[in-house]
DNA sequence: CGTGAACTTGACCACTGTCAACTTAAGTGG
DNA sequence: CCACTTAAGTTGACAGTGGTCAAGTTCACG
């Protein structure tokens, strides 16, 4: 289902990039044009991409959640990252040629379809945007490293607390939280696949967090009443999200 | 200790890049010049970088092994990747401004010190090399995803088998294996920190692998007598290493 | 109001961690 | 070249975090 989505309501991307880079007026306009590409919608649980796919275009999420995942041959699924509004789905396949993981919609999701050609043009014409896009990929890699630390060294309790804060922080950066609560479409099954735990144990652990008064999770809505204590309890340090900087911008990318 | 290492014995990088991109004569020369940058040596267990560092230059490994790692506040260490000859240490800090993880030498290691300025120049002057460098980063991210799958879903036996094959494959791509064996400086402790297992359990698991005739590991030398069976047993599929392609090269990077 | 997905809880169990002692290998200095 | 010393590897006994199985209950939604 192809529809036109001209209204650049898609603040998330511009908002995030603006926070970490100085975008010129021209950059923002080019971005808005990109976001205004033909869009497509997918329903929950639909795969936007499968491992091995050779992408025809690059997709940018305007609205909704998705996840990256990989599966073992026996069919066990590991979620390796969440894709939130303003995230690219397959920038890496753009360079590597094919997907090394799959992407599945979690909510109903709207993605802008960007042709490789228009991305090429954007990159050559707006080096600072190219720079910003690479930063996004690198931040992704940084989040994966933090997940490795979680899966390898943290307890179930810490893993889940940590993940909830990470998602909350990212949503906040995208302007999608309301006070200390936010929409939260993940099922306990999803949380299990992301944390390497069993659904049953996720449930038990969530109960713990609830009893401690650190997490309220009900009807697809998450509330973190005491972020500081939860961060403390789960060993969360925000550095790895590289949210603040405006650090180094170099070469063609400057 | 700064020494000059003019001889571009550093085949690994050129070899790997050549396998995935078409490098012009000029590209190779520029690369060789890069590799010929002043070098520095570090002894085993010495940290080449610490989380939080704001890198002064980019380091390229000519010789030796290192690992990327993160630690929890309680001091538990998770290795999130291995750095082999031909790998960059801190290409990501080049764009992100500061390290989100630490790097530690495993063997005695020699790294070329590349100034941001000369890297800037290389990138602008040789877009196809810039392209290739980004590919390396993306492949790194792909390996991290595979590690997440391992830590989250694979048994101890599979994790270790998988990791051994991954390292063997990467060394082979760098021209550093001899038949079915290679140098292997990791201790069981290192393997534990990389797989999220305890050293004791790594030991038990290696014994299993040895008894199955799939792994011989002695005196810092690894032999994989039956790679096919080991791959089968550990669910190893090489796709994620993106070793073969010469796929898409676009935009300025083309 | 019905039907399936998502969530809960309890009982049981096993993979892996911890602790501790010991053996072997590696590196150092006399 | 051999004591000495420390790191690395090995093994056994025991414990625990988290997995599995299975039976509910609640929720979402047509």
From TrEMBL, chains A, B:
<dbReference type="InterPro" id="IPR014710">
    <property type="entry name" value="RmlC-like_jellyroll"/>
</dbReference>
<dbReference type="InterPro" id="IPR000595">
    <property type="entry name" value="cNMP-bd_dom"/>
</dbReference>
<dbReference type="InterPro" id="IPR018490">
    <property type="entry name" value="cNMP-bd_dom_sf"/>
</dbReference>
<feature type="domain" description="HTH crp-type">
    <location>
        <begin position="154"/>
        <end position="228"/>
    </location>
</feature>
<keyword id="KW-0238">DNA-binding</keyword>
<dbReference type="InterPro" id="IPR050397">
    <property type="entry name" value="Env_Response_Regulators"/>
</dbReference>
<keyword id="KW-0804">Transcription</keyword>
<dbReference type="InterPro" id="IPR036390">
    <property type="entry name" value="WH_DNA-bd_sf"/>
</dbReference>
<protein>
    <submittedName>
        <fullName>Crp/Fnr family transcriptional regulator</fullName>
    </submittedName>
</protein>
<keyword id="KW-0805">Transcription regulation</keyword>
<dbReference type="InterPro" id="IPR036388">
    <property type="entry name" value="WH-like_DNA-bd_sf"/>
</dbReference>
<dbReference type="Pfam" id="PF00027">
    <property type="entry name" value="cNMP_binding"/>
</dbReference>
<dbReference type="InterPro" id="IPR012318">
    <property type="entry name" value="HTH_CRP"/>
</dbReference>
<dbReference type="Pfam" id="PF13545">
    <property type="entry name" value="HTH_Crp_2"/>
</dbReference>
């Amino acid at each position: 289902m192809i529809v036109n989505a001209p209204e650049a309501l898609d603040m998330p991307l511009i908002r995030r990039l603006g926070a970490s880079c100085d975008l010129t007026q021209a950059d923002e306009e080019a971005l808005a044009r990109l976001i205004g590409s033909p869009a497509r919608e997918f329903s929950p649980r639909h795969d936007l991409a499968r491992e091995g796919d050779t992408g025809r275009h690059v997709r940018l999420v305007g609205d909704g959640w998705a996840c990256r995942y990989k599966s073992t041959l026996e069919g066990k699924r590991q979620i390796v990252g969440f894709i939130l509004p303003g995230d690219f789905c397959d920038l890496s396949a753009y360079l590597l040629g094919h997907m090394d993981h799959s992407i599945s919609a979690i909510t109903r999701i709207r993605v802008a379809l960007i042709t490789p050609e228009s991305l090429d043009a954007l990159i050559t014409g707006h080096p600072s945007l190219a720079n910003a896009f690479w930063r996004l990929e690198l931040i992704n890699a940084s989040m994966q490293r933090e997940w490795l630390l979680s899966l390898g060294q943290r307890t179930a309790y810490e893993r889940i607390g940590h993940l909830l804060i990470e998602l909350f922080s990212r949503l906040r950066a995208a302007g999608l939280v309301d006070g200390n609560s936010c929409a939260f479409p993940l099922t306990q099954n999803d949380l299990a696949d992301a944390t390497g735990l069993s659904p049953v144990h996720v449930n038990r652990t969530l109960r713990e967090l609830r009893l401690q008064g650190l997490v309220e999770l009900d009807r697809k809505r998450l509330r973190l009443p005491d972020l500081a204590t939860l961060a403390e309890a789960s060993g969360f340090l925000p550095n790895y999200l590289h949210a603040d900087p405006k650090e180094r911008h170099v070469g063609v990318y400057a």
